[in-house]
Amino acid sequence: VMKRPIFRTALLVAVVAASACGQAAPRYMIYLHGRIVEDGGRLPTDSTFGVYQYDAILDSLRQGGFVVLSDQRPPKANSDSAATRVAAQVDSLVQLGVAPQEITVVGFSKGGWIAVLASSRLQNPAISFVFMGACGPWTNDAPDLHVAGRLLSLYETSDSLGVSCAPMLARRTPGSAAREVALDVGLGHGTFFQ
After folding, report:
1. Half-sphere exposure of residue 3, counting CA atoms within 13 Å on the CB side?
2. Which residue of 20, 83, 147, 163 has the fewest C-beta atoms within 10 A of its own C-beta?
3. Per-residue confidence band for 25, with pLDDT thresholds at 50, 70 and 90
4. What b/e string do you get for 35-62 counting C-beta neighbours within 10 Å, with b at 16 or more?
5. What angle do CA 176, 116, 166 make, to 5 degrees?
6. What is the C-alpha to C-alpha distance for residues 23 and 5, in angstroms, rounded to an integer?
């Protein structure tokens, strides 16, 4: 977990180094884990859904070529405060010269709700957001909630905790693009545990 001044310095070094070497600018992903990690640590187990493989998820995202940023939230973390922090991270990247098109925010479950809030605050149609098992009455029945960006919702049809984001996506900010994919693997909320 990096503190903000170190975070900004590390990002600046990465951006400058990539530019100096003539390499393409890196793509950044901010990954927001589910609440189970807040409550149970980096390798928590749910009696129904199995082991949440937080570090393995981060490793797989890095293998996709992303610079992955992910903080483990403390127990009972406030979603609004976490969304403010994510929005500040995105703003820091942009201020350091990272193109918004090179930034993706991915969130699962409570992390997905935090990503929704961050999208609504940032209102930048060029930033990508992936909401996984993130929606429910808290998003779909909130008429004042307007997400913005290149939006992808993923949900498992057997999941009673995270359902379709279609009502929320229909209220997206003009200039935003949205797509939703319904998965049918039968693992409920555990679909996104690995």
Report:
1. 1
2. 20
3. confident
4. bbbbeeeeebebeebeebebeebbeebe
5. 65
6. 25
Question: For residues 75 and 36, what is the distance between their CA atoms, to the nearest angstrom?
Answer: 9
Say yes or no to pLDDT of 21 above 70: no
For residue 152, give both structure tokens: 């992808």
Both structure tokens of 139: 């998003």
Q: How far is CA 67 from CA 28, 53, 85, 144, 148, in A?
A: 5, 19, 18, 33, 22
pLDDT, tens only, 113-165: 999 999 999 999 999 999 999 999 999 999 999 999 999 999 999 999 999 99
96-100 CB contacts, 8 Å cutoff, 24+ apart: 96/8, 96/11, 96/12, 96/15, 97/15, 97/25, 98/11, 98/15, 98/25, 98/26, 98/28, 99/25, 99/126, 100/124, 100/126, 100/127
Spatial CB neighbours of 16, under 8 Å, sequence gap ≥ 6: none
Report pTM: 0.87
Q: Annotate 83-141 with DSSP letters as a single string.
A: HHHHHHHHHHHHHTT--GGGEEEEEETHHHHHHHHHHHHH--TTSEEEEES-BSHHHHT
